[in-house]
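Q: Could you write out the predicted structure for this multi-component system? I'm mainly interested in how the pieces pack against one another.
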Amino acid sequence: MSASSNMNWDRRNVLRAAMGLAAVGGLAACGGNTGRGGGSGSGTNLTQMFHAYGEAGTEQAIKRYAKAYKDANVTTQWITSNDFESKLFSALLTKNAPDLFEFHPQIQMVKSGQVADLTDLVEPVKDDFNPADIKSHTVDGKIYGVRMIDDPQFFFYRKSMLEKAKVEVPTTLDELMEAAAKLTTGKVKGLYMGNDLHSVNDTLIWSSGAQHLDEKNEIAYHTDGVVEGLKKMRRLFTSGDLLLGAPTESWDPSSFNQGLCAIQFCGMWAMPAIQDALGDDWGVFPFPKVTDSGKPSVYNGGWSMFVNAKSKNVDAAKEYVKWLWIDQAEYQEDWATSYGFHIPPRTSIAAKADKLKSGNAAEGVKLFNEFGHFDNIGWTQAMRTAFEDVFANSVRKNMDPEKALDRCDTAVNRELKKLFG
Amino acid sequence: MTTTIPKVRKSAPKADTPSRAGRGGGVMSSTGLYIATGVAALLFLIPFYILVRNALSTDAEITGENWKLFPTDIQWGNISELFSDETVPFAQTLWNSAVVATLHTVGVLLVCSLAGYGLARIPYKHANKVFYAVLGTLMVPTAVTFVPSFVLVSSLGWVDTYRGLIIPGLFSGFTCFLFRQYFLGFPKELEEAARMDGLGYWGAYWRVVVPNSLNFFAAMATITFIAGWNAFLWPLVIGQDPSSWTVQVALSSYMTNQTVVFHMIFMATAISILPLVFVFLFLQRWLVQGIAQTGIKG
Amino acid sequence: MSTTTKLDVPDSATAKASPAKPRRGLRGSPTLTFWLFTGPFLIGLAIFVYAPILWSLWLSFFEARFTVTPDKFVGFDNYVYMLTNEDFVGSLGTFTVFAAFIVPTTWALSLGLALLVNRLRFMRAFFRSVFFLPTAVSYVAASLIWKMSIFSGVRFGLMNTVLGWFGVENIAWLIDPNPPWYWLVIVTARLWLQSGFYMILFIAALQNIPEELYEAAAIDGAKSGWQTFWYITLPQLRATSTAVILLLLVAAYQAFDEFFNLLSKTTWGRPPLVELYYKALGESQDYGAGSAGALILTVLICAVTLLQGKIMGFGRGDESK
């Protein structure tokens, strides 16, 4: 793999990309001045990688959008494995890497030069984006991804079950624990937060009044509040009031819909499926505060498009991202509201999304705005895994939370040192 | 190995001959024996029972509050539902598995048997060193080489191809080792007679050794085919696109998918096992004899 | 097809064949023939096995994050990191416990089944098929059946249904590590998948035991049963047992599929391969540390295998060379 051959490739690729751009018709600022050439972009092939969304019709939708694009031939890899990260990461090392892919903003991908700078695409419409979505994708003033959807995650509860057990909607973690106990009957468990409980990792930190990293990118999650929260989670885990070992993880509403539990942590995307299964017999509430100084919180997850900086077709890929996720408002709205419910990160599109304006969906949007926390781009996959281990060790296993957090600190500091020196 | 057995017997092990009475002694009466075997067999059959039951039930019956011994209405429709599912081209994945497992088997048998014979029988002063180089690969866990292999194969442009699925797996140190052990035990007189007749090693191998080893080849073929059909990790990374998935990858995708449709995943599992069950039932006799000769019995 | 004893042949391959065999100058020299036979295999082995191993070795001395063509040499840092990493070292412990348990258990179960089947007079082929059939099932398929049905943590899992009849609460088999029920799940799956194959090996070996030994023992007054089992059957199976244990050990430390599919997001019950996959080769993409860990593991495996070989004498035929 000599450097010179790489150079050749690069030059050829730049040429090819330039031709692709020319065909696109000079939409981009740097569009070739040759104008619309022959080819009509038929030579450009792009591959995009998506994780498998659970909602019916999503895969067809993504493929439909791709088909509608005239300037390149876009093929979709729909990764059904729950190991999307590994699959994506290993693919990015190879010649068969996707040209563009969806993921979450994580700084190591920027630092290692895996994702391309998309500032020029986003800048013109920057004000139309939720500012938090811009912030979470920005490193040193450059924007590296285009947010497609925001996915607030919170609790869903069965109104009838709470009424029957005479339980109010919990506002503190203690109340949630009590509610879980009261709601547990022979065949129904009070609460489901996923088998590994990892979907509430982030909200536990926020609801304890802490955060992952502070402004200086130093550890900020290791607080007394978080320790207290972990201890409570441990009590909850051993109480027998949690649904454990369910066939689907918490991002799927099946357990809630099948009546295996009265309260489930899930995401806004599940609303249409829940509505179908349970009618109006459900409501939503944020992760309650853990300590007195804490606040309820909602995890504003979501997915963003990134362009593989090492792709042979960076410019064509950027062009496609711009076309679909910046320009095509109709598709963006379709993507956000026709299958599962997601909040469009674009204010103009969110304003038009009527499905999100009434009932529980509107309540979800309210929680998103009021209690939502976004990803911190400095919090990488390795740190995420390290904190998941804290839950595994101190909640599912009986390790002292302080000790578990210390171990996490070691791992996170190693990462931080590599990223920020 | 110190207490080497006086192996006086010349006859081949015949696994199908009824047991000689008295063997192992009368710890157990005949009835007790059958009860014990029966109970063990029942336990071994439970997973198959669950598979069939769930594959032919509705989800409501599978997840219902009370265990249904068998579906009230047998849902044959689950089969067509599985094959008409758009997200996972199940028929295609079965076909891929069949192609991959078959070519894998042919390739492994050819390459590894030749090498095994060479190592066992052809005089070469460094043969043992070569053999240790082969044996050493048995100790290296797949994860060591997994990522570099993937990058290597990918830089050859073999991702999503049959080549990429098949070729890297052909060079099995273990199979080569088994062939070597087997050929070491192959009666020398036969080959020597062949070579007296003017055949070289090559001729003797194809005219005498192989035709006299069909049982063993059949056994190795079956084992290799099963391994090829059941392989998971490698097809998982090589098969990026569903059209090049093998059936195991499809199964795993059902298991980790966001939505779990029980009757579909169990039907898929059942169908994925079916071809091997047939292979087993028909080839069992050779398999048992062949395994007996693998040489791993010492 | 005579299976004359394997034991008197092994060491001889090269040694015995070389002296004075009248060869009539056909088809080139034996050396050339040797390479003709082994060449295709060895070339493939070099490209698809040795090249990646060397690549790993090289990577292990570099800071290789998010790349497999790194340029920052770090010496033994990766090795130090892995050897001081509690999770990795812990997983080596896990593996040892797992191997120490699963190997003898599988050995005992396969032998037990072989003894049972071997004594049957009717329906022998049927029972043998029943025990052998799971060999055809993949680890993925078995994990699926175990996780989704037998040991599902909810009310419709088979085990929980059965326990429910006795009024026992649902158990989250795979989720709650106290008590560590997950071992039950993993061990039963592995026993089910593996025992049949080794049972066949034992049946073959049992049939090789000469009848005369039992007759002689009977004359000497040995009681049929435990005594003959202990003094005749077991010693006669020594060679097979050795091979079976070696194969089981290899299988135990290559364990990945069912752990990967059954236990997600745990910090326990991880064999080294899974640990490496998650910690280094998977999400954190630290290929340097991952390769270092893998090589440490390899050295360990070699040591264990050689030790076992020394103790039980497997492959002595080869070593005597």
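A: Regarding packing and overall arrangement: The two ends of chain B are 8 Å apart (CA to CA).
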